[in-house]
Design a protein that fits this description.
Blueprint lengths: L2 E4 L5 H12 L3 E4 L15 E4 L6 E5 L4 E5 L4 H9 L3 E2 L20 H7 L6 H4 L6 E8 L4 E5 L9 H7 L7 E9 L1 E2 L3 E8 L3 H12 L5 E7 L1 H4 L5 H4 L5 E8 L4 H11 L6 E4 L1 H12 L10 E6 L5 H8 L5 E6 L4 E6 L3 H15 L2 E6 L2 H6 L8 H14 L15
Parallel strand pairs: 1-3, 2-3
Antiparallel strand pairs: 4-5, 5-9, 6-10, 7-8, 7-9, 11-13, 11-14, 12-13, 12-16, 15-17, 15-18, 16-17
Helix pairs in contact: 11-12
């Protein structure tokens, strides 16, 4: 049974990490716990929770900047931003419901530590691209600050980017400063029905290349469409391909017409209005098409025009249900194959196309037996090992969460 420590102040963290380093005691870092069962199973006997560190220190809407403690709920951040008509542009994915946790538990520290982004990734960048600065404590129990409050303050940006996406294996983030963006004035979703995976990826790629402010493109196979809660799609019994337009209200009708003409060869297009569009994309942000099943979930990224071919190949080895995001460059897979064979087949097949495969949901037994994150080539592994040693030489922080040596 592990010991749970809830931090009351950020300065306590150095003390606990120093003690852990001296006694070689591994520590698991958690915020709201929404991603606790992602990655390799914890090897820690002590858990340190940051969710009591939940203050928004400053928010300057006119400067599009916010700074908050790592334990601040993302829902709190989004609510505060909404009062000023602003948002997190990279649309962070909510993993909690997928991993058996309540929605709304994700914290801002966990959001940047994992760097898992939603449908705007292609048009707006990743979470780390919006991160201006961090305060954190390394595995050496050293407190450090990196980055700053303005874009031209780039002295620590490399360090900030190294910590973002490291899943708490390098340092414990205690505070973040990040950019926000205005919400679009109006949103519409252009929907094509009945396209094959290959045609859908082709259509999404064509839309991405057009100057119409298409900020997201997704394609859902029929079985996943049936799991949507949004009323506009509940009666659809075919795959759907959805393209999101976000702009000023006076420009939207014209851009819809341009897009309809440009894509008319792919079939009839249907338009979903502002409120229904927002509800639909909010559903996708919580991965609702993947819920209602306890099967393994894999997250696959590859070149935009290769995803459909990868799915064709992997279906020679196993049954899968797939949801394409990022205009076809990202795939969320539900698989029914036995894991030992499944992981090997996925990685072997993906090697033909290039990309990364991450096991997001599986049992503890499975996650301890397979490489949860994409295996690294020798040069990248060497750099990663050195980085881990520089930040956390005794490997006390989230030990082996990503790789056995991290």
């Amino acid at each position: 049974m592990s010991i749970l420590i809830r931090l009351a102040t950020d300065w306590e963290l150095s003390k606990y990490i120093r003690e852990a380093s001296n006694t070689q005691t591994p520590i698991e870092i958690i915020g709201g716990g929404s991603k606790q069962s992602a990655g390799r199973p914890s090897q820690a006997s002590v858990r340190i929770c940051t969710n009591r560190l939940n203050t928004i220190h400053f928010y300057e809407p006119s400067e599009l900047i916010m700074s908050a403690d790592a334990g601040t709920p993302v829902a709190k951040i989004e609510t505060e931003l909404a009062t000023q008509g602003q948002m997190l542009a990279f649309e962070p994915v909510e993993l909690g419901p997928l991993l058996g946790q309540p929605a709304g538990q994700s914290t801002v520290g966990g959001m940047f530590s994992t760097n898992i982004c939603g449908s705007r990734r292609i048009s707006s960048g990743a979470g780390r691209d919006h991160l201006l600065g961090i305060s954190a404590v390394s595995g050496r129990a050293q407190t450090f600050n990196s980055g700053g409050r303005v874009l031209k303050d780039v002295a620590g940006i490399g360090l900030t980017r190294a910590v973002a996406g490291s899943w708490g294996t390098l340092a414990v983030i205690t505070r973040v400063t990040f950019k926000v963006k205005p919400k679009p004035e109006e949103t519409a979703t252009v929907v094509l029905i009945g396209l094959s995976n290959e045609l859908a990826v082709e259509a999404m790629g064509a839309a991405l290349a057009m100057p119409f402010d298409v900020t997201a493109g997704v394609h859902l196979e029929t079985s996943l469409v049936k799991r949507l809660q949004q009323e506009d799609f509940q009666s659809v019994a075919n795959p759907i391909t959805a393209l999101r337009l976000e702009t000023f209200s006076k420009f939207l009708p014209r851009r819809i017409e341009f897009l309809k003409k440009a894509l008319k060869t792919y079939g009839e297009l249907y338009i979903v209005g502002n409120d229904a569009s927002i509800a639909f994309w909010n559903e996708l942000q919580q991965l609702s098409p993947m819920l209602g099943s306890d099967r393994q979930v894999w997250r696959i990224s590859t070149l935009l025009n290769k995803g459909a071919h990868f799915i064709n190949d992997i279906r020679r080895h196993m049954e899968v249900e797939v949801y394409f995001d990022w205009f076809g460059g990202l795939m969320w897979l539900l698989i029914s194959e036995a894991v030992d064979a499944g992981a090997a087949d996925i990685r072997r097949t993906l090697a033909t196309y290039g990309g990364h495969a991450t096991l997001i949901r599986a049992t503890d037994k499975i996650r301890s037996q397979v490489s949860v994150f994409q295996p690294l080539d020798s040069s990248t592994e060497h750099i990663t090992r050195n980085l881990k040693h520089a930040f956390d030489p005794d490997a006390v922080l989230n030990r082996a969460r990503m790789y056995t040596y991290l």
